[in-house]
Amino acid sequence: MTFTRLMVGIDFSETSVIALEHGKQMAREAGANLEVLHVFQPPPIPPIATALPDGGTAPTTIVEAYDASDALHASEHALDELLRAHDMEGLAVPMVRAGDPALTIAETALDEKRDLVIVGTHGRSGLSRVFLGSVAEKVIRHSPCPVLVIPRPPEGAS
Fold this sequence. Notes:
This protein is an alpha/beta fold. The chain contains five helices and seven strands.
């Protein structure tokens, strides 16, 4: 199988940077297009209570939308710096989106018709994975294309 359209999901962790290096090598060897996607998750907006004339309260939500412009600009800058540090200017196209990381990676792979998605995994297991979930696992379940998962390096490996 020949891959011509690759996408690396990056969260700036050690394993995602290793995934980025794999994507860089694969793109160069195959002459493939490479996009590097960082997805930031806006903080949840908690429900608030509104006082009613009878003294009770009614649940409501904050109407103002979360202004993600600062997070967007910070993410774009961090991604540009990372690509520059890894000698990927001109090779990789940076992309920054807001949303659920796993679903946004999978949706972008579908919308952009990617051949392969590359992500790192933090290697959690047991209860920590149950409670925290696994972005890599969710990407695998929702991705329309193959997913290459790069594991966390063993402790003490360099």
